[in-house]
Design a protein that fits this description.
This protein is an alpha/beta fold and about 775 residues long. The protein has four domains: about 40 residues, no CATH class; about 200 residues, Rossmann fold; about 260 residues, Dimethylsulfoxide Reductase, domain 2; about 130 residues, Barwin-like endoglucanases. The protein is about 30% helix and about 15% strand. The chain contains 27 helices and 31 strands. It has a six-stranded mixed sheet. Helix 3 runs parallel beside helix 19, helix 9 packs across helix 13 and helix 12 packs across helix 13. The structure holds ligand PGD. The site of ligand PGD has 40 residues, from helix 16 and strand 18. Ligand PGD binds next to helix 16 and strand 18.
Length: about 775
């Protein structure tokens, strides 16, 4: 008899019906108007050859013990029974803690993990390290928005004030007249939302706005950054030059008397100082449309017309995550905010400034008005942290001082690294450098359900269950439904829940009770749900018991009003409802940032030269954006992801003119080269990519093969060639979106992609 189970993921709620062979029929949630195609990645995922079936330990770690090595990522793995591996790992954690202290353990463990509220792997690993070890070196910020996280509190307030409770899709559909989408609003990005998403409304909202007469402008090097439904004008801008375009638009507003001087006077500080830079009084360079045209590739007349059109309309300046994931990524955010302030629509329905609208599915909707079930992570006894994307620097340079957001910090000396629920060999840049830096560790531990490249570089790989193999509750903080996530299948092989793994380790370290508080997984889920239930009861809303909730499958949660929140209140009363900035106003000049004295992020928005620009050996911009066929690297081996590859390799999109200049034809295997490394991909030719650019999305599992003394990723992971450098001393964020490369036809032998099959374990005797 077939059974159907409700479940949820970062890319949508669904139900799953397993057949006898373990394949799943996946049906999207009935109320989702535009379900994500990547739900189908689940179809053949349960018993795939990529799964980790049992605990595996790197042979050299077993034979030689913990310590620095060049063998990580090259060595074989030995299958070790659970009891033995947990004994060994508990002893190693204890050794590192006793000899070096918990500040020698890096547990940042960045990553998206799964959508369940209890089995959320980062929460689990952080709670474990806090309760069992006394703490760990953490990371701050995200790969998504580190520059935004650092700069917004200085200039406009909390990140959530501009990215979450702000202009909504409802307002765009009803009120916005002009959307300036810097970095576009690609539906492949809003298909996902942390914690889950029940209704994908972006396509419908853009269609409704367009039908009402709203105009969308897609300001991006890729035409596909905006859906057809928006009917957008495509301004094909040179990568990384949005700040110059914004400055030139502001120059037009200023010199033609189109700026909202009233709003600037009452709601901002520092405009006069900025205006001297804009006009060139400060540096001798007027930021005119003629100045910006050769930088941006957009004709001066088009820039001037756009500024004039924006001054006339209810305009929304929207800046994508991607803009700030490149060198000086703080600047387009600050310039975009300043442009919106000059237009004077901030705080009006559908107008003003939004960060990341359409960049993820949980933006553009009011937040949930009750607390969600959340696993407490305990107290971290270690105060040391790193900005999230500085992980290779940290491993390479222990004891070295560096700048971050007005502070002088020192990299810790890490001996043991623990990762659960993330894939650093997906999310980090310059992967060969990362692989070498990992060689300095004594021990690297990874939990995952799949044998990712991070797992391949680990010493100890522990098989976690995947979301479909356990009970949980799923909810996102701007989604109106809480979903019951039913267990669809038994764990693969010997896989255990992250919770059970950590409980076993904590027990061995004498900290079992501190970690579990005497609860099993089912009792924890009930305990965490009580918080949400109590808040619903207090509001007089339906508050079913856990058993009743499971019968119903989902629960409607109350949302906050769609009222524009902090920015709307500030517009109405700038003195009475100040922003969370030092002055309480929008800071066009920030005395705080100015006092940091950073040459790469001075006191107001500026156009800065970049260290990475096209040049003879790397003449093309590589746009390494988010993939359309999976979330990051998750389920790269799933049906939708695999179907978009060609001959098993990731597709690199090029303009036909660039391809012709290099003798590259449709479907050719190409090699993408930078000073950092090389990867292979299959070429696809399209005029949707601006000339001078190549687009290779992230997420193909890194599959390095030694060819001619170099490690070449034969699968097409762009982070094999991207630059690992912080956005600036202020944000120190990931700059993986843009790097410079050359692309050529690959004339050598074409190695097969093997990374989707887990390594076969060897026995110790056979290996010797
Ligand atoms: P994911 O592929 O989502 O990538 O980086 P992130 O590390 O989040 O990794 C999640 C991992 O968790 C997967 O390996 C999955 O199998 C595992 N997992 C899922 N569920 C469980 C579980 O229950 N238990 C355990 N133990 N593991 C589980 C994403 C990061 O990449 C982000 S957010 C961004 S925005 C960045 N974007 C770019 C970019 O634009 N350009 C470049 N070049 N690089 C980027 N990297 C960044």
């Amino acid at each position: 008899m077939t059974r159907t189970f409700t479940h949820s993921s970062h890319w949508g709620a669904f139900s799953a019906t397993p057949d006898e062979a373990g394949r799943l029929a996946i049906t999207p949630h009935a109320a989702d108007p535009d379900p994500s195609p990547i739900l189908q990645n689940f179809t053949d995922t349960l018993a795939h050859s990529a799964r980790v079936a049992r605990p595996m330990v790197r042979r050299g770690w077993l034979t030689d013990g913990p310590g620095p090595t060049t063998s990580r990522g090259r060595d074989e793995f030995v299958a070790v029974p659970w009891d033995e591996v947990l004994d060994r790992l508990a002893a190693e954690l204890t050794r590192v803690r006793d000899d070096f202290g918990p500040e020698a353990v890096f547990g940042g463990s960045y990553g998206w993990s799964s959508a369940g509220r209890f089995h959320h792997a980062q929460s689990q690993v952080h709670r474990f390290l806090n309760t069992a070890l006394g703490g760990y070196v953490r990371s701050v910020g995200t790969y998504s928005s580190a520059a935004a996280y650092a700069i917004f509190p200085h200039i406009v307030g909390r990140l959530t004030d501009v990215s979450r409770h702000n202009v909504t899709w409802e307002q765009v559909a009803n009120d916005t007249e002009l959307v300036l989408a810097f970095g576009g609003m690609a539906l492949k990005n809003s298909t996902i939302a942390q914690g889950g998403i029940s209704a994908h409304v972006e396509r419908g909202s853009m269609a409704k706005a367009r039908a009402r007469g709203a105009r969308f402008v897609n300001i991006a090097p890729l035409k596909s950054d905006m859906p057809e439904e928006a009917g957008a004008d495509w301004l094909a801008i040179q990568p990384g030059t949005d700040t110059a375009l914004m400055l030139a638009m502001m120059h037009v507003l200023y010199t033609e008397g189109l700026a909202d001087t009233g709003f600037l006077a009452t709601h901002t500080v520092g405009f006069d100082r900025f205006a001297r830079y804009l006009t060139g009084e400060a540096d001798g360079v007027a930021k005119t449309p003629e100045w910006a045209a050769p930088i941006t590739g957009i004709p001066a007349a088009t820039i001037a017309d756009l500024a004039r059109a924006a001054a006339k309309a209810r305009t929304l300046v929207a800046t994508a995550h991607a803009l700030q994931r490149s060198e000086h990524g703080e600047q387009p955010l600050w310039a975009g905010l300043t442009l919106a302030a000059m237009l004077g629509d901030i705080g009006l329905p559908g107008g003003g400034f939004h960060y990341s609208l359409g960049a993820m599915g949980h933006t553009g909707r009011p937040p949930v008005a009750v607390p969600l079930p959340t696993l407490p992570q305990g107290e971290n006894g270690v105060s040391t942290y790193i900005p999230v994307a500085r992980v290779t620097d940290m491993l390479e340079k222990p004891g070295t001082a560096y700048d971050y957001n007005g502070k002088r910090l020192t990299y810790p000396d890490i001996k043991l690294m623990y990762w659960a629920g993330g894939n650093p060999f997906h999310h980090h840049q310059d992967l060969d450098r990362l692989a070498k830096a990992l060689g300095k560790l004594d021990t690297f531990v990874v939990h995952d359900y799949a044998f990712t490249s991070a797992a391949r570089h680990a010493d100890i790989v522990l098989p976690a269950t995947m979301t479909l193999e356990r009970e949980d509750l799923g909810a996102g903080n701007t989604d109106r439904l809480l979903h019951v996530m039913r267990k669809v299948a038994e764990p693969h092989g010997e896989a255990r829940d992250d919770y059970a793994i950590f409980a076993g380790l904590a027990e061995r370290m004498g900290r079992g009770e501190a970690f579990t508080e005497g609860r099993d997984a089912e009792e924890w889920i009930a305990h965490l749900y009580e918080r949400t239930r109590a808040a619903l009861t207090a509001k007089g809303l339906p508050a079913p018991t856990l058993a009743e909730l499971r019968d119903a499958g989902e629960l409607e949660l109350p949302l906050m009003p769609d009222d524009g929140a902090a920015l709307a209140r500030f517009r109405a009363d700038p003195e009475g409802a100040p922003l969370a900035t030092p002055s309480g106003k929008i800071e066009i000049f920030s005395a705080t940032i100015d006092a940091m004295g950073y040459d790469d992020c001075p006191g107001h928005p500026v156009w800065l030269d970049r260290s990475e620009v096209p040049r003879a050996d790397a003449p093309l911009w590589l746009i390494a954006n988010q993939p359309a066929t999976r979330l990051h690297s998750q389920l790269d081996y799933g049906a939708t992801s695999r179907a978009a590859k060609r001959d098993g390799r990731e597709v690199a999109r090029l303009n036909p003119a660039d391809a012709a200049a290099r003798g590259i034809g449709e479907g050719d295997v190409v090699v993408v080269t930078s000073p950092r490394g090389q990867c292979l991909a299959t070429a696809a030719l399209t005029t949707d990519v601006l000339e001078g650019c190549v687009n290779l999305s992230t997420g193909a599992w890194y599959d390095p093969v030694e060819i001619g003394g170099a490690r070449v990723c034969v699968h097409g992971n762009p982070n094999a060639v991207t630059l690992d450098r912080g956005t600036s001393k202020l944000g120190q964020g990931c700059t993986g979106q843009l790097s410079c490369v050359e692309v050529a036809r690959w004339t050598g032998q074409v190695p097969g992609v093997t990374v989707h099959s887990a390594p076969e374990p060897v026995t110790l005797e056979a290996a010797e």
